[in-house]
Amino acid sequence: MSRIVIVGAGVGGLAAAVRLQALGHRVTVFEKSDTVGGKLGVLEHDGFVFDTGPSLVTMPQVLEELFADTGPPLSDSLTLRRLPIAARYRFPDGAQLDMPGDITEIPAALDAALGRGRGAQWSQFLTRAERIWDVTHQPFLESPISMRDMLVGAVLRPADVAALAPWRTLRALGRHCFDDPRLVMLLDRYATYTGSDPRHAPGALAAVPWAEQRWGSWYVEGGLGMIAVALRDRLVALGGTLALGCEVTEISTRADGHVDGVVAADGSRHRADIVVANADAAQVYGRLIRTTPARRAARALRRTTPSLSGFVLLLAVDDPPAGQPHHQILFPSDYDAEFDAVFGRGGAPRPVDDPTVYICAADDPAVVPGAGTAAWFVLVNAPRHDPGGGTDWDTEGLADHYADRILQIMAERGVDVRNRIRHRIVLTPAELSRRTLTPGGSIYGTSSNGPRAAFLRPANASDVPGLYLVGGSSHPGGGLPLVMLSARIVADLIGPS
Predict the structure, then answer these.
(1) Boundaries of domain holding 9
(2) SS3 of 98, please?
(3) Locate the Amine oxidase domain: which residues (predicted)?
(4) Which of 119, 179, 316, 385 is the most buried (most CB within 10 A)?
(5) Parallel, antiparallel or unpaired: strands 248-253 and 269-271
């Protein structure tokens, strides 16, 4: 029986802990916060319950598999509800699309909202996206293998490479497939699922909308934070140990460079045969461990482009407007200007003056204090917190001023709740950075900007012997399903006790 320490109780760390405990290891999870979930955070205020991180479940089979592999089925712990409308999109010309949650209904909805023939174009695109999914999901998303291994090891056939077209960006793919700029804009948005710029992110990200539409969009009753609670309960039921309010300040090593445990903020040492880090890779290699391989990894990460961050409004709304969908996206007139601002093109990274606005308005009595109220999560893409070279989100007055600007934009685009707000809570990239120890609040660690960037994330098996990485900043990437796949890869690499 190996002693395994997991640093961080985010979804990746908890999922890895559950799998490893079920495999017979003795697992202890250290978490600096007093709650579990990491970026899958929850904030409660005056009877309102807000998810402060992910607000959408895709590929629910990954979550179901995690529970089935480690004990009783998911349905014993959580109730998932499929959304009939995946999202409402409002385009700059005022056109509105209610994207069905059923993939078979999407072509007709596109034709009705955007004009005849748009559904056929999207269907043709999805056929190509499915091919990309078929090529990548097993050897890449579900394995520790890298794109270099796929190419050098001849895992990919010439026809596979042609389907992936790694030289083509997501924006270029959209322009190749669509003659309607609104469809290009719709596809562009999926680059933000990895914190990236569609003009630089690889076309392989086309697999993301295919997977989302193939398996649907889902909500967890009580809020997505319940996923972390269910994983915590599963870990405890299996006999694992969870130490909350215990920050790890160092991953220690033996003389031969192999990890041998962790050091907590109070100076206590905890021995381990294996350490799994569910922390941002830049923090792991730049702060927690001090070995030559770690320094090399830290240098490599400094050469990458950090992912974008997010500026969040949590709105306690009285008498919310009728007919609001669960998810709503309000596009700007100039999407390129948004990415220029966030990634610092044409100047330093800066708040977007006219951003895309994402609204999550869950219809769930469990997250509000009573009838006639709603808990809204509002998100816009934002540059990370970087006082030295970009945006200092702690600048006095900036957060409140920008929050007012977002509410004004919502009103201009048809969703005015300014006179209905009981409470407004603002979370900036600076606050995200402090809450999750993520440098600058970069949600996904590194972006996928560049033809190979999506395949060059830090590996799950570190070059530091005995150290593994799990979570959104490591392979295969961010988002709930990929983070849980990351945990499965780590558990498979370590193996049973």
Answers:
(1) 3-39+221-304+456-494
(2) strand
(3) 12-494
(4) 385
(5) unpaired
Domain check: are 328 and 400 in the same one?
yes
Residue recorded with tokens 């992110």: 201
Q: Which residue has the tokens 């009783």?
A: 72
Given this model, what pLDDT does residue 371 score? 96
pLDDT at residue number 145: 61
Cα three-residue angle 357-363-366, rounded to 5 degrees: 120
Q: Residue range 80-85: average pLDDT? A: 98
Which residues are CB-neighbours of 194 under 8 A, at least 6 positions away? Answer: 201, 205, 208, 307, 444, 447, 448, 454, 477, 478, 479
Summarised one tens digit per residue, pLDDT across range 417-472 is 999 999 999 999 999 999 988 999 998 888 888 766 655 689 999 999 999 999 99
Lowest mean pLDDT: which of 126-135, 155-164, 379-388?
A: 155-164
Q: Check residues 424 and 1 and name the one with the higher pLDDT.
A: 424
Residue 384 pLDDT more than 60? yes
User: Are 160 and 262 in a shared domain?
Assistant: no
Nearest to 284 by CA among 488, 464, 487: 464
Q: Mapping DSSP to helix (H, G, I), strand (E, B) and coil, where does residue 207 land?
A: helix
**Cα 11–12–16 angle (5° rounding)?**
115
Q: Distances from the Cα of 476 to the Cαs of 109, 169, 365, 472, in angstroms?
A: 32, 19, 35, 8
Residue 209 Cα distances to 123, 297, 455, angstroms: 12, 31, 18
76 located within any domain: no
Tokens of 185: 């804009």
423 & 358 share domain: yes
Inter-axis angle of helices 106-114 and 118-136, nearest 10: 140
Asked if residue 197 lies in contact with residue 183, where contact means CB atoms within 8 angstroms, the answer is no
Count how many domains the chain has. 3
Closest by CA position to 440, among listed 283, 249, 289, 294: 283
Pairing of strands 327-330, 85-90: parallel
pLDDT band for 161, please (50, 70, 90 cuts): low
* Count of Cβ atoms closer than 10 Å to residue 37 Cβ: 26
| Burial readout 238-255 (b: 16 or more C-beta within 10 A, e: otherwise) | bebebbeebebeebbbee
Q: Could you tell me if 178 and 230 lie in one domain?
A: no
List alpha helices for 239-288, DSSP H.
Answer: 281-283
Q: How many residues does the chain have?
A: 497
30: confidence class by pLDDT, cuts 50, 70, 90: very high
The residue from 214, 241, 259 where one domain ends is 214
Give the integer Cα–Cα distance in Å for 114 and 117. 9
